[in-house]
């Protein structure tokens, strides 16, 4: 049975990829006119791009992002005005994202957004652009700028497309990144206490409580601030008194990221 099933599965994947391409290209009204071929020369120009797109999607769908991005880049180089070029732009950005080239992916998503501001995939593009910053969030003793940027970009998505399929996930990511920033401030306050710079610790704790009043670290920040202001800051075995530096898994709020791709037109 295995010898008969394998060709059937491969054929199914190819048919699914072809259906995806037709749905993508057909869904963009600005590209529909390009499918009205007027001569055999036009057909000859389009088929190579379509073939490259199918091969790129075949590799993309099985996680071969290194080779998939080569097919998409070739479309953009050889057939920049073909209907498949828009697809290639988006999937090249997706490949860079999955290859953890977040800075490059963010740039490609932004270029797509600028070139195709009315494309139906823009909410997805904005979400992915925010995710590129979110993915750079590290331990709380590291640079918090990724979390700050992610919150800003997620909020832009919520403002521009409040009813998009990514609203709930964006809100969860904002909550998670906010927790990270609050814990970062608490870590800095810990440092000042350890070095007996209590005035600086008070300033950071007050800032934490004013800026992130709904975070889970709030109660500990209030307790520490109370002890410092009472002249009784913790002085012994601070590494035991304070929480560990490691933060929760920042994928806590994440479902399978494949589910975050736009349904139908951008099935990954």
Could you explain how this protein is built, in words?
The protein is mostly helical and 268 residues long. The protein contains eleven helices and no strands.
Précis, in short:
With about 270 residues, the protein is an all-alpha fold. It has helices at about 1-25, 40-60, 65-80, 85-100, 100-115, 120-135, 145-160, 165-195, 200-210, 220-230, 240. The chain has 2 domains: about 10-20 and about 40-100, no CATH class; about 105-268, Alpha Horseshoe (Serine Threonine Protein Phosphatase 5, Tetratricopeptide repeat).
Task: Outline the fold blueprint.
Elements: H1 2-27, H2 40-61, H3 65-78, H4 84-98, H5 102-115, H6 122-134, H7 145-160, H8 167-194, H9 198-211, H10 218-229, H11 238-241
Helix pairs in contact: 1-2, 2-3, 2-4, 3-4, 4-5, 5-6, 6-7, 7-8, 8-9, 9-10
Main attributes?
0% strand, 268 residues, mainly alpha, Serine Threonine Protein Phosphatase 5, Tetratricopeptide repeat, 2 domains
């Amino acid at each position: 049975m295995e010898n008969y099933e394998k060709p059937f599965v491969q054929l199914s994947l190819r048919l699914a990829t072809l259906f995806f391409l037709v749905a993508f290209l057909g869904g963009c009204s600005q590209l529909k006119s390009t499918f009205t071929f007027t001569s055999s020369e036009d057909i000859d120009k389009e088929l190579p791009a379509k073939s490259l797109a199918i091969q790129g999607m075949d590799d993309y769908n099985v996680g071969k992002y290194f080779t998939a991005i080569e097919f998409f880049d070739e479309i953009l180089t050889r057939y920049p005005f073909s209907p498949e070029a828009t697809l290639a732009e988006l999937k090249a950005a997706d490949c860079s994202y999955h290859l953890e080239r977040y800075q490059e992916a963010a740039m490609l998503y932004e270029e797509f957004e600028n070139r195709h501001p009315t494309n139906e995939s823009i909410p997805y593009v904005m979400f992915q652009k925010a995710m590129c910053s979110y993915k750079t969030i590290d331990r709380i003793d590291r640079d918090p700028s990724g979390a700050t940027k992610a919150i800003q970009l997620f909020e832009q998505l919520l403002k521009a497309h409040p009813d998009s399929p990514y609203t709930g996930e964006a809100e969860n990511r904002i909550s998670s990144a906010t927790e990270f920033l609050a814990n970062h401030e608490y870590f800095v306050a810990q440092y000042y206490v350890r070095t007996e710079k209590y005035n600086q610790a008070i300033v950071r704790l007050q800032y934490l409580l004013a800026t992130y009043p709904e975070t889970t670290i709030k109660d500990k920040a209030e307790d520490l601030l109370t002890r410092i202001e009472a002249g009784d800051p913790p002085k012994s075995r601070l590494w035991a008194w304070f929480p560990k530096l490691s933060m929760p898994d920042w994928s806590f709020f994440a479902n399978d990221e494949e589910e975050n791709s736009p349904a139908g037109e951008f099935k990954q």
